[in-house]
Amino acid sequence: TVVVGIPASGVGEPRSPIVGDVVKKLTALGAGVLIERGATDASFATPASLGDVAWADSTAEVVAGADVLWTINGLPADAEAQLRPGQVLMGLLQPYASAEHAQTLADAGVTAFAMELLPRISRAQSMDILSSQGAAAGYQCVLIAAARAPKFFPMLTYAAGTIRPSRVLVIGAGVAGLQAVATAKRLGAIVHGYDVRPETREQVESLGAKFVDTGVSAAGEGGYARELTDAERAQQASALAKAVAESDVVITTAAVPGRRAPLIVTRAMLDAMRPGSVVVDMAAETGGNVEGTVAGKDMRVGPARVVGPVNLPGRMPVHTSEMFARNLFNFTAPMIVDGALAIDWSDEVIAGTALTHRGRVVHDGVARALG
Ligand code: NAD
């Protein structure tokens, strides 16, 4: 039987990629589940809720006993050193972060699937961890902004008058940004959305928000955006400056895969905001969309408050662990055939997500980016 192992996630990571529901599905496929004791405490999955699983006392024991390792962010270095050739590792492995790390995994002979690399095609949607966790992140950004704003989000009529609704601008209308738009709308704000991919206009408008048109269009490969040229960046900045200045809250979620997050909101734009304005930069961990953001900090920058939250999906680990586990199950299930591991390399979803296999870094885009 194939054993799926769940080591404890690292310090500061409350999510764990397993829930009872997914244990049942794995069991139905004939797979076994081996979990490190305590691994699910922070995600509130009790041993009773997990059902029929085996427990290990250490990460080393899980790595030794598992054929397939499910992780949130990969393994610590000492556990990685223990991996065996042919073993399968899955998680958000940050494939573009370091050439050395990719080579370490290749040298260990493991088949590593970096879930960030999953092709964005319809068939793969149920496996899409960036999407499920991104939706949670977009939602959380709005809650953070609402909790810090010195204003109501909704219009409010009270005995002595009427409060005007807050204006929220969401920059970057991918999965996270659209969820931020929807959440801000639910809280009653007047919402504007902006992105460089032209198809996002309709998506923003279908949520009842208005689209900010800067005239810049920059669709790239695979449904993602490309980096802007200097001229496009200047054009974007002059059009966005006005929209930023008119907003009470700005939420930024812009990203280009494998690159530093684009810098979009400058210090001059922040200085033109009203006192008490709130900016939440979801891209803080990858360099920031806002000038002066610091990941993990909540700071005054000119008249605004700039928040750079980290690990947003980790703030709601019950649901994000459940989504993560389901995504990994949908990705893994086709690899378990008659109780044995059988990876179909002709499947573009599987091949496209592989970072390393049989001693090599097999993902072209990553190999190219890392040189
Ligand atoms: P992402 O996290 O890479 O980027 C977030 C957003 O930032 C994107 O919408 C991007 O266009 C935008 N952006 C980049 N540079 C910008 C700039 N300079 N100014 C403003 N915005 C900028 O993207 P994502 O949310 O992971 O996904 C992008 C798109 O991929 C989705 O919206 C969707 O169309 C597609 N997608 C498809 C599937 C699927 O079919 N399986 C799944 C998920 C996403």
From TrEMBL:
Protein name as annotated: proton-translocating NAD(P)(+) transhydrogenase
Protein family (similarity comment): Belongs to the AlaDH/PNT family.
EC number(s) on file: 7.1.1.1
Catalytic activity: NAD(+) + NADPH + H(+)(in) = NADH + NADP(+) + H(+)(out)
Residue ranges of every copy of the Alanine dehydrogenase/pyridine nucleotide transhydrogenase N-terminal domain listed in the record: 5-137
Top-rank lineage group of the source organism: Bacteria
Chain's role: The transhydrogenation between NADH and NADP is coupled to respiration and ATP hydrolysis and functions as a proton pump across the membrane.
SMART domains xref list: AlaDh_PNT_C, AlaDh_PNT_N
Top EC category: translocase
Keywords from the named record: NAD, NADP, Nucleotide-binding, Translocase
Annotated Alanine dehydrogenase/pyridine nucleotide transhydrogenase NAD(H)-binding domain residues: 146-308
